[in-house]
Structures are given as structure tokens and as C-alpha cells.
Amino acid sequence: MTRALSPDAIEQIQQISAVKPDMLRRVHVRNAPPPAILVDTIERYTLQQRVMTGVETGRDFFDEVLGEVGPDLADELVGRAGLTRADQVAALEGRVNVDKPQMERHFYKALRHKKRCRRQTLMLACSSVIFLVCRHGTPPGWSTKSPRQSSEAWRQGVFH
């Protein structure tokens, strides 16, 4: 993801997230996951760039966003319910022409909300798995080995 960012964008993200270069070096050397604040900042930055570029693109971007956010958020974004997709796109064009910065914020919020909902669903699923494993033990067929041991077992054909 960061390969597509300019050096200026990377510096800006680093300043916003307050992640220092020595911390990033440690993450790289230890092959550890990046700090959550850095991941969140990169996600927000790339989403904002997508919205700003998309609003300039126009119709195709509006249609794409309407398809991504689902009917309820699409109606909220358009400001009216029950419109056809073509009418929704036309309504968004009109709203962008009237107040582009406000509509950029609306697009950002709608896309961010969609991502947050997906993340919450994933977190709920993970929590359920953790709860079940803690309460009932490891389900039959699940490996209790570490990821490294499991990959070794796969290579040796133990699970084939």
C-alpha cells in the first residue's frame, strides 16, 4: 500500500500518526505488524485521496460508491429514497456542483462507515471463535500447533 504513496504523502502520514522512523525500523527488522495508528492513518489518507480524485472523475465514481455502500447509505448520501441508480448519480452530480467540499465529506463518511461495518463484523466473528475455543477447547480438526509448526507439518504431508 505504501509503495503507491509519494514521499511527501509518507512524510505526512508519519507526522499524523506520530510513528517515528526507529519504530518502523523495529517493525521491519522483527517482521512485526505495523502500529494500529499507522495502519488507520494510511487507510484514512488513501480513502481521502480516493474521494478527492473520484469527485473530480464524476459519474463513474458516484456510481461505484453507490454500489459499494448499499441501499440505505446510498439513499442517505443522495438525500432522497426510491430513486433509480441513474437518478441517484444525477442527484449526486447536482449536489457536488452546489457544495463540493461538503459532498467530499459525505462520500468519505459513507465509505468509512462501510469499512467500519466490515471491520466490526470481522471482529465479532473473531471474538466468537476466541470465545468458543476458550469455552469448549479446540474444535476437532483444528491444529493446536503454532503457525510455524503447522506450516512444517503441511510441508511434510502430515495433513494431506
Order of helices and strands: HHHHHHH
The radius of gyration over CA amounts to 22 Å
**Overall shape:** elongated
Q: How many angstroms does the end-to-end distance come to?
A: 35 Å
Tell me what portion of residues adopts beta-strand conformation. under 5%
Task: Enumerate the spans where pLDDT stays under 50 for 5 or more consecutive residues.
Answer: 121-133, 146-160
Helix content bin? over 70%
Task: Write up what this structure looks like.
The chain has one domain. The chain is 78% helix and 0% strand. It contains 7 helices and no strands. α4 packs across α5 (85-98) and α4 (59-78) crosses α6. The chain starts with 6 loop residues before the first helix and ends with a helix. The model is unreliable at 121-133 and 146-160 (pLDDT under 50).
